[in-house]
Design goal:
Two copies of one chain form a homodimer. By secondary structure, the first copy, chain A, is α/β, with parallel strands linked by helices. Helix content of chain A is 42%, strand content 13%. Chain A starts with 8 loop residues before the first helix and ends with a helix. In chain A, helix 5 (103-117) packs parallel to helix 6 (141-149) and helix 8 (198-206) packs across helix 9. In chain A, the strands form three sheets. An eight-stranded mixed sheet of chain A has the order 2-9-8-7-6-3-4-5, sandwiched between helices. Chain A has 14 helices and 13 strands. Chains A and B meet through helix 5, helix 6, helix 10 and helix 11 of A and helix 5, helix 6, helix 10 and helix 11 of B.
Chain lengths: 428, 428
């Protein structure tokens, strides 16, 4: 079959009729499938069930340093939890703070502190007339919601296989001191699954910024979330801390990780690493906000996951469950859409998403069609600030939650919807 | 023995010599005792150990509405957790939001939202030149740290047996629209153990405020923390929500509770209740901050504590452990200090503290002496904004943490230090 773009009107109309029929058949099945969010599947959650037996009523509730984890105290986290997450953060425990049940809250609070208090002596960002922020696109909708909540003006930054377009970034930050930061998901990015090149990381670390208090919000959410066990098939982003120290901008970054997609989403632990000056300031501010985060949950995680080896072994079990889901999605896209030329996509080696770029101006329609046929996708536009995708093209596919057979059905519907929306567009 | 104030100089010097000798004997014992914080004792923590078996690896992880509590979602809390805390909040579940592991974080975040965004359309407090806050004194040091962190000017409000002095409060708020709120611990207050009278609650609810966005931060931390099982020996503060609705100021309050002193401090759940307008706004703001708090811990609490009856039965077990500690402290103060006239104190019927007012100008010295003899008290001044007690008089006694025999030893030291500091002062 030729590419749709090469077809005559008569051929397109015939193709559309066929695809419409196919769509009606899917719709008649009354499906209720969900590929909208990066949620682990039930099978993945089962992997961490033994963690809940680690702290039963007979357990020892003292941390390694003798702290009774059932009582108040320990602002910045148990030593064993710091050691565990410092490994993921590629930093030292002393530069690490353990936060609560999710990294989103930690990132919001980190930005909220900068808004209310500034950072390392700078003017509180909330006191400025305007604050701007760089948003590599497509990106993570919840990041954009955080900056939007604080009234920060978001600037789209195109990305390529190596990360954000650094020529554009460097040009913007060198003259505009109202640009205070950038969102980065540097490894297996959300949604594209790309990993920043070492050069991109070094340029982010070393670029000249008009704002002394420019901060890289480094959300390394997928730092150990590989799809393949062999190291040669895994990505590994250069540590932004290392790069910033080398560039003599040691305070430029905040690194974030969590166990949300390792143990239980919403019932995990999260961690931040930064320079010792930043850590000192954050601890001072935190001391007014909390006596300390949930140490029982920290102890559970430290005892269950143990160390980097324990984490790695655990993540391989996740990969064994989700790898075939990613492969299925790519295969369905390949067989269903390649020959028609309906869109492009990337094949990631880790993370939680496949980023699909539909023909220009069709994403909203595709998502609406899919919903009509019982398949919920992430909303079109969600991967852009303010929910506005200027090309109406990008759709984030989240394959982890549905069981394999449901995913297969959902992808058949999705492929059909992409074809139908593309044909509608070509005939409009 | 006569009161110190009635003694001659010679008598005082003789008394001081005796007390100094006593002090040196205590010091020689090398004690290491802590009455500084309102921490539950190990025996109290044991009461909640069965809660940790509620969610083992064999448990059902679905909430009543079928939500898998191990995965993402549920911004405002599980229905069963809302029902449980709504009871403590004396409000409806629909006006309740469940937060994370501690009420301090929830109160800080509530204030932070008002600073960044205002409340119900008002100017963000952080945009104003000055924000002032009413602080009934003596009060809770961590409350004062929160307002101080945001640069809010704190105003001391004297309290009496019925709560804050409402004549002063009403006079201040009616003309000054920069006064945006008040901290209240309305039942078994920290540190005085008093409970606001119904009249005080009604006046707080109905007073004329120059600031439309004046907010009562109602930290009902000790709402079910009675020392006695008989209802006639329990305090019960009038619900501020009820009073505010009756006064047609329905949006004036935020009510806070937590399970920190019910199950595990730092590993509990917390809840906020407010008017439906406030709840709607908070949920909207929260949606940028978090996907939801730890639902596994919410489920644990709901299944373990069940309902108001379960809570009440559980709190009686706490009372059985701590009641005799309070009685011991009061007895030690009575026998040791009454006849000398060294200070005054209140005998609470609930809560976590006994508030001791030493002779003017001696509190700092007493705390220093006690520390020297191995007994850590809450810092002098801690119960006042900025850590400044204008009379250098109030000391908060926290009797719950030490075992009874340690508490007895610590109180003997404390009584000795009060006598010594008083004698030093009289002879200075």
């Amino acid at each position: 079959m030729p590419r749709y773009a090469d077809m005559s009107k008569v051929e397109l109309e015939a193709a559309k009729k066929t695809v419409e029929q196919e769509f009606l058949e899917y719709k008649a099945q009354g499906l209720a499938l969900d590929m909208s969010r990066g949620k682990p599947s039930a099978a993945q959650l089962e992997l961490s069930m033994p963690m809940l037996d680690v702290l039963n009523s007979e357990a020892d509730f003292k941390s390694a340093d003798g702290t009774d984890c059932r009582n108040y105290g320990v602002l910045d986290g148990l030593a064993e939890a710091k050691a565990l997450l410092a490994g993921m953060l590629e930093d030292e425990p002393k530069n690490t703070i353990i936060f609560g049940n999710a990294s989103l809250n930690m990132m919001y609070d980190t930005l909220a502190r900068c808004m209310a208090f500034g950072t390392l002596g700078s003017t509180p960002w909330g006191k400025l007339d305007e604050v701007k922020w760089l948003c590599p696109v497509p990106g993570y909708d919840r990041h954009f919601s955080v900056t939007e909540a604080f009234g920060i003006t978001m600037i789209n930054i195109p990305t390529n296989e190596a990360g954000p377009d650094m020529d554009i970034v460097e040009n913007l930050v060198k003259d505009d001191d109202t640009i205070k930061g950038i969102w980065c998901v540097p490894q297996y990015s959300n949604p594209e699954g790309i990993t920043y090149s070492a050069e991109v990381v070094r340029r982010l670390a070393s670029m000249e910024c008009a704002a002394d208090d420019f901060r890289i919000f480094w959300d390394n959410a997928y730092c150990i979330h590989h799809l393949f066990d062999e190291v040669e098939n895994q990505d590994c982003v250069l540590d932004i801390g290392l790069a910033c120290r080398a560039a003599e901008n040691p305070d430029r970054y905040f690194k974030f990780v969590s166990t949300s997609k390792i143990t239980f989403p919403g019932a995990g632990i999260s961690g931040l690493a930064a320079s010792s000056a930043n850590i000192t300031e954050i601890k001072k501010r935190m001391a007014a906000q909390t006596i300390g985060h949930d140490k029982l949950n920290q102890l559970r995680h430290a005892r269950f996951l143990v160390d980097a080896n324990g984490l790695s072994a655990h993540m391989k079990k996740h990969a064994a469950i989700i790898r075939e889901k990613f492969e299925l999605v790519c295969e369905k896209l390949d067989t269903g859409l390649n020959e028609n030329g309906c869109g492009t996509w990337k094949t990631p080696r880790g993370g939680y998403f496949i980023s699909f770029d539909a023909p220009k101006g069709t994403a909203t329609r595709i998502v609406a069609l899919a919903k009509d046929a019982g398949v919920v996708m992430t909303g079109a536009g969600a991967t852009y600030p303010y929910g506005r995708d200027p090309l109406d093209s990008n759709i984030r596919i989240a394959p982890t939650l549905p069981p394999l057979e449901e995913l297969e059905a959902a992808m058949d519907v999705f492929v059909c919807c992409v074809k139908l929306a593309t044909l509608e567009k070509l005939l409009a």
